[in-house]
Amino acid sequence: KQEVTQIPAALSVPEGENLVLNCSFTDSAIYNLQWFRQDPGKGLTSLLLIQSSQREQTSGRLNASLDKSSGRSTLYIAASQPGDSATYLCAVEYGNKLVFGAGTILRVKS
Amino acid sequence: NAGVTQTPKFQVLKTGQSMTLQCAQDMNHEYMSWYRQDPGMGLRLIHYSVGAGITDQGEVPNGYNVSRSTTEDFPLRLLSAAPSQTSVYFCASRLRGGEAFFGQGTRLTVV
Known about the structure:
The complex is a heterodimer. Chain A is mainly β.
């Protein structure tokens, strides 16, 4: 079964701290991996998409890495801000299906 | 750019009632999917479609029907609503291998 796991389930950090969110997947035959942000009561917003042939993608203070062989991805957030507080979800594309992890709830304290 | 549009945003149903959740996208995406989101469980796939006329079941399909008569629209039908179907429902669209776009969600309560 294709499963996606995110650790930690919740994280609280002081403003300015660098942090790492983890995503692992059981089946390495992926097309791509995508990181999303979800604010309370809202839909999902795509942050970064990493194709299976890529090792990392960067957007501003965000950097996502992908290691297919070990079944892992990390989302690195530099110099965190209170506005980064949200739920972060990773999703793995297996051809026709997009399989999601349960998410990490991030709180950045000012 | 409308993206993915879901209607309604909120709905309260009585047990046994039926309804249709609407989803439309204007990006000519071949792939469309319906998910439900419950606390602590992430998004679970209900049904998906890889093109007009083609649909398939996801992880939690029981109690739901879909059809895809056009590229743009992918409605989700609840046949006989049950309290276990109380959830937030999201529709998504994408190209194969591409970025997924989500609607704003439908909050459904079944009493």
